[in-house]
Write a structure and sequence with these properties.
The structure is a homotrimer. By secondary structure, chain A is of the alpha/beta class. Chain A contains five helices and 40 strands. The model of chain A has no long low-confidence stretch (mean pLDDT 96).
Chain lengths: 346, 346, 346
């Protein structure tokens, strides 16, 4: 159902209403794009000007921002979280019906719970366990002895290698690969000897994983994502990485082997971490930073340089390589000035 | 057909011939690798030495470069574009025949145009529309209500989530995912609340997308690629990004949510852009640069540092962190020298 | 078989035993996690403290480290390589049985060797040759005229475009795409003209390729990986790249078109290389470095900056853009001091 009255919406979201409970709301929109039939939201005071100009039928906002808006409103101390809840009320994609498509290839001993949807061309290996209410979309491949908790959702073409464990309500977008062999090789003097990767991938409840992301199985022991971790697209998580609960990892991040990341961390897009380090709880790393050592205190960390017009940037890059000699010239000047000060007339 | 005479080639490419129209040409090659049976090209004067040494049977070049080459030639003001057109004449892979493989799983109400090829194991959801002359290769999954314009080509194992719109002649390489859920979560204080992603992906005519690239659907409103955009492999385009016509995006680029990129821009490999910024038309960003603010003027922009032997780089990295104190020492020296100048004998 | 006696293990690995040949060993573990039933290893003297505290039943170590450990031991000059060999003895995943799943779609003229496993939903195009003992797991798509050497292993959902050549024992993880069209376009003044990619991908013996990696086919001529190259996940290798034997490429690396990399190189995670350059044998590039020019001498190379707390980093970033003026101020000071020295009382 996507046709709501504002009063019913307020009730469903558990927020206070100011205005007309009978106002019809057909969807959500940004302040800029909303019309009288839409609910919008103000989560950031940067957008107060957009609020002033908005044609939205109603707006989710903080009680303290109510003075900025004379129209119908829904009041919440966390309007962005209320919008997040509201978004699901307007998601009109039909749920996948229970049942198993005839083209799926499922080993005889797979245990499948109640209400499970298995799409076309899915392949499930022996010994797998699929709990109630899972949705396995078209073309997924689930290896032997994988265990999926209740209400797991795999989008089309996800691959789980054997023995992956997924907690309840885990969601994985298309093209992601969990449990692939880690990049483990010993140098023999002549070349590389591959190391069999004997561990698993273990994923906690309510973890959300984007598209075309890779999470390798452990070499010895497991690669672990604790509950509530959220991971974007194109992320690479190497063998034996451990990620603490509720940590958020944006797109294109790469985490090298055996690194441990704390709880409630945020890694912005394109960040890279070397292997075998530890990141404390509550660390925030800004975009495209390279982290080469453990971080023991919460807070925000960065590397890299600000961008410039390429012409200036080239000059800066040259100067950068002269820093050593600039420091040497500075030392010499200090000695000379000190000498001059000694001999200067008072 | 890949056996040509030089005269027929000239006619087909619409360029002027100098030399023997009867010369047989069996393929294209670089100046270095070409033999008498090959056509090569000179697009960049950096390669004039290679031209001098080339054994090519004929060369595509500018009329102004004709003095550099005494053999058979095809003349064009844009020899690289002429080579691009010629390349298709020597592409001998047979076209995919019309028809639908028996193993494909296609919802009953899908509308399929004339001359469409649908490969093995393809899955197409209800309400999809596939226009004339599309090629859908093996293992693609096309969600409900997707619309594909005429002559779209999907390589094996592309995933389109529901409601993706592709213009005419769009080409997508294997493993790419369009329409996946954007990385949208609200923080609730305890953890992350997912935001349903209600928008679509809308792709204009003649867009070309590489392999294992991700383009997320909009949260509210659409993610949009205008006509003629070209995108390489492993690119990440987040929800509600808007990319202007004829912009080129090289491999491993990541573009964060709601960022708008102008027309005729070039993003080199590995570039990252934060969210909610605007990039003007005609901006060029060099490889691996991080763009953290809007850019309002066309031109070239860069960040990062030049590479060095690691030993020197370590010294530079240490010095970099001393920049603040170097600046302070510089200030002090200037004051001291100014003081000395005052008291110095004239 | 994963139940071993220590003596049998020593014999199988070709290493010397010190201690009880009858000790049962059920698996491998790290020094920290090992119990009396496990074999562990000391490959790096950083871990001698972990060795002292380990409960491992036996440890693989160098003869020179024997004094550090009083328990049962296996002696090797390269304990990490010995551990790598041992890992395969404890890999209890059953081998894929020979045979072809009924759901696979295989062109009539495909040549399939002895002992080949072809999984569910696999698609193989006309003219392909699959040598003895290959394993093609579920959902792979192999294009026309591909040639796979003996004992190639493709994990689920690998895509090979037509005409890819794989040497003996090549292994490819899930989601990787070999032979996709390179990013080749000519600018016509109005937009981009695609260039047909007419070359192939040619992969030597014993190459190992991770998950969701892309290796594009050549434009003219081939993209080549020599024998023994190892490549991690999410790597991008553009058209006509040439990689020398036994080079290791970690995750998220991007290599632009026509670049040549030597033998025995190591590219750490997130490294980027521009196109048309040459990297000598034995070059090591540290994580996330950007390589913009050819490198002619072996050794280690780096770019980028060390990370800092974001607050300090912002100051450094501002100072960096003042380097040009700092250099100018330094020059002026030197002139002034020199002048003062001339006139100073002796």
């Amino acid at each position: 159902m996507t046709d709501w009255r504002l009063g019913a919406l307020a009730e469903s979201l558990g927020v206070e209403l100011r205005g007309d409970p009978e106002r019809p709301i057909v969807g959500l929109q940004s302040l800029r794009d909303a019309g009288p039939e839409h609910l919008s939201f103000l989560a950031n005071t940067r957008y107060t000007e957009a609020l002033r100009q908005s044609c939205a039928g109603a707006v989710l906002l903080r009680p303290s921002d109510l003075a900025l808006w004379s129209g119908d409103a829904l009041l919440s101390d966390n309007p962005y979280a209320a919008y997040a809840r509201a978004s699901h009320l307007f998601d009109c994609r039909p749920p996948r019906p229970p049942g198993c498509h005839a083209s799926a290839v499922i080993a005889a001993d797979v245990v499948i719970g109640a209400g499970v949807h298995i799409g076309a061309q899915v392949v499930i290996g022996a010994g797998a366990v699929i709990a109630d209410a899972c949705v396995i979309e078209a073309g997924c491949v689930i290896g032997e002895n994988c265990h999926l908790g209740p209400a797991v959702h795999l989008a089309p073409r996800v691959v789980l290698y054997p023995e992956v464990r997924l907690g309840a309500r885990v969601r994985i977008q298309s093209g992601s690969v969990l449990g692939g062999d880690g990049f483990g090789f010993a140098h023999t003097g002549r070349g590389w000897q591959r190391i069999a990767q004997l561990g698993r991938v273990v994923v906690g409840d309510d973890v959300d994983i984007g598209a075309n992301t890779c999470i390798d199985r452990g070499a010895l022991g497991d690669t672990v994502l604790e509950e509530g971790v959220i991971i974007d697209n194109q992320v690479q998580i190497a063998h034996n990485v451990h990620i603490g609960a509720h940590t958020a990892i944006a797109a294109c991040v790469g985490i090298s082997g055996s690194t441990r990341i704390g709880r409630h961390c945020v890694l912005a897009g394109g960040v890279g971490l070397v292997g075998h380090i530890e990141i404390a709880d509550g660390v925030h790393i800004t975009g495209m930073s390279m982290i080469t050592k453990s971080i023991s205190a919460p807070g925000s960390y960065s590397s890299g340089t600000a961008f410039e017009p390429s012409r200036q940037w080239k000059k800066t890059a040259v100067r950068l390589r002269q820093l050593e000699s600039m420091a040497e010239r500075l030392r010499r000047l200090e000695a000379q000035v000190s000498e001059l000060q000694t001999t200067a007339p008072k």
